[in-house]
Amino acid sequence: MLVNRLYKLLIDRNISKQRFSLDVEIDLDSLIANNCNIDDSKLIEIADYLDCSKDYLTGASPFEKHGVKYQGYSYRNELNDQSIKFDNGKPKLSFVPYQICNDIAQIREHGVEKYKTIDGWKNVSLDRYIDALLRHIHAFAEDNTGLDNDSGIEHYKHAACNLAFICELMKK
Q1: What separation, in Å, do the N-terminal and C-terminal C-alpha atoms of the chain show?
Q2: Helices 98-115 and 155-170, interaxial angle, to 10°?
Q3: Which of 10, 29, 42, 66 minimizes the number of CB atoms within 10 Å of its CB?
Q4: pLDDT confidence bin for 63, thresholds 50/70/90
Q5: Between 17-24 and 40-49, two packed helices, what is the crossing angle to 10 degrees?
Q6: What is the DSSP string of 44-109?
Q7: Residue 95: how many CA atoms within 13 Å on its side-chain side?
Q8: Is residue 110 within 8 Å of residue 153, measured between CB atoms?
């Protein structure tokens, strides 16, 4: 696996075997002959040279693909390589639990049916959402299985929706 990954990285980074051998002072053919036995410090040196992690080279990291560091992308990767997506600084929405989206949607559906408007929430002042949020949080704190009298939906879902409205109104 190590040699296969090394070859792939050399090709991806347009580095010849000879250049690699000179720069890191290791011959790939002898590495194969030695059954890929390599000391840890040399492996780290190779990983640094190729701008990837030691775990990628050894196959220990399931998060890395094509030698790209999970926490930061390599500048050496080809720009036309569509397997790499430059999305540093963008929110990782996959980190958000899906259930909160479902809960907010349930409250929004109730609100749209009740008020007969989709965007009417945008015309409500921030302080009213803060008050509603606090009412639902207090009701939830008193009884975490309690339901809102008007909608019959759990208080924590109403709190989540009110907080979502507050977040949207507060965004700059």
Answers
A1: 49
A2: 90
A3: 29
A4: very low
A5: 130
A6: HHHHHHTTS-HHHHHT--TT--TT--SSS--TTS-TT-TT----TTS--GGGS-HHHHHHHHHHHH
A7: 3
A8: yes
